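Incident log, structure service

09:12 report received: a user says their structure output differs between two submissions of the same chain.
09:20 pulled the input from the user's history:
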Amino acid sequence: MTDHHCVLVLADQLDWSNPALAEARPGIDTIVMAEVAEEANYVRHNRHKIVLLFSAMRHFAEDIQARGFSLRYVYLHEQLPSLAAAAHQALRETGATRLRLCSPGEYRLWSELDEWPDRFGLPVDVLEDTRFLCSLAEFNRWASGKKQLRMEYFYREMRKRHQLLLDQGDPVGGRWNYDAENRVGWRNQQPIPPRPDIAPDKMTREVIEEVTRAFPDNPGDLSQFRLAVTHEDAADQFEWFCQVALPSFGTFQDALVEESPWVFHSLISMYLNCGLLAPLVVCQRVENAWRDGHCSLAAAEGFIRQVLGWREYVRGIYWLHMPEYAQRNTFSARRPLPEFFWTAKTDLRCLHVALSQSLDLGYAHHIQRLMVIGNFALLTGLDVKAVCEWYLAVYVDAYEWVELPNTAGMALYADHGTMASKPYAASGKYIQKQGNHCKQCRYNPGKVTGEEACPYNSLYWHFIDRHKDVLKTNARMGLILGNWRKRAADEKAAIVGWADELLTKL
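09:34 re-ran on a clean worker, output below:
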């Protein structure tokens, strides 16, 4: 008699390359999917994320059944508390002899799996997630013995391994990285194309109604929900990006634009991270766009670096250092998260715009996350865990494996340089250079102190001053520290005093 297995499919594993699904047998095994309270509530998730995942799960469930599999689907209204409870129920009801699943992407859930065999009374097979372009074993081998890890060198190895943007083993164009050409600030240089609209179908509308009732206090304006929830729609959205937005993506990928939350970005991280798109496929498509003369090499390389480089690298860093990584706090940042992180009520225009769209849409591009919101959190010493939890809650594409290294490491430098070679601290001048928010702001980026001064300016120097003993060991901070030391004592006192006043008002 053939053993009957249950295969648990998690919400961020919605693709047939999921190794647990790839080994599942139609007509024999039962696929289990579950909308459970524990996964929906462990942080205050943006409702756009909940709708995306629940609707994508339900659409994928239809595909599973169409392929001849038996399916046990647990809906939110059934109020099962956890994935473990859903799996246990399915095992009992089907009489299965084993449970199989692809390894979860978050340590929180992965750490529970050791208890499941005893709890269920049968074997639990946890299969390596093969949907990434670098296995954790491969990353660990690359990292082994290195005194300092840098994404750039990892990225070059990945380019070679996957044969992307190479010419007989060398980088096309003679350079590995074209980041310097991808930092043009926004001055309304050209029209930003409108995005194709995805009207929610009947299933998605039902999910929106359920999520609205179940999560009334979570962020997310669901009247603006326009995300793809199927592989086909996600692929169409990406193809639009390749044909329309990609040629301008590279130039303006760091731009801050008052008029558009999307600018020329692809908006595919949320689809990659739940399985609706595959990383190698999107990288190859962009490489082909460049080879066909449709975009610049800088645009293609900048895109591929984000997917092949950063995405794979942060996952490697996360699993290399967890769970200890989550406890790091280089600058002992403990200040409570201001209420305006949940309301966006701040006079700082750049911060207001970034927070508003993050809360309403569950999206902000990387410069808004790093150099506007993250920079503010870094300069003001906001509590690292609270900031990380906020990022994890607010963004549709956020899972701890990608969120924690980017937030704690890149934005807050809480990991003391594991992710970044220096803190990403900046004054209002940077924000002014990158976009047009300052024109709409009541603060002046040219002033450092006083009621009209941009708060980023004094807060920047206050950060440098209070952490100078930590920063002096960083070679890349030497010039900045030298500039601060050279200032007159009364000038430094005025700047620090004004920043102190601002901090008391947070």
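09:41 both user submissions now match this output. Likely a transient worker issue. Closing.
09:42 reviewer note: The chain has three domains: 5-127, 136-321, 340-504. The CA atoms of residues 358 and 443 lie 22 Å apart.
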